[in-house]
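User: What would this chain look like folded?
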Amino acid sequence: MSAIKVESRRYFEVLGKQVAMLRKARKFTQAEVARAVGVSPQAIFHCEIGGRVSVLVLARIARVFDVSVEDLIDLARPSPCARWSRRSATGAGAPVR
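Assistant: Here's the prediction, encoded as structure tokens.
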């Protein structure tokens, strides 16, 4: 499996756990969140188990929980994963502009 697929899978798993944690903390059911977001309960279940979710649905979920999309996807906290940089993408010896 490619590194990108692994990173993508990990990203959606973490996102799903974050959505489930917020939902449970607010004592919402998946059906209640689904109704507020405008999707099926199965779509919320799919999201919570690490399935892909569209940006539009992600924004609606954030609105339901009264958090920013950034907070929802936890971008405020730096990830311990390998960091992408322009220099690493262009090669170690290439200048960064």
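Residues 3-76 form a domain with the 434 Repressor (Amino-terminal Domain) fold (CATH 1.10.260.40). If you want, I can go into more detail on any region.
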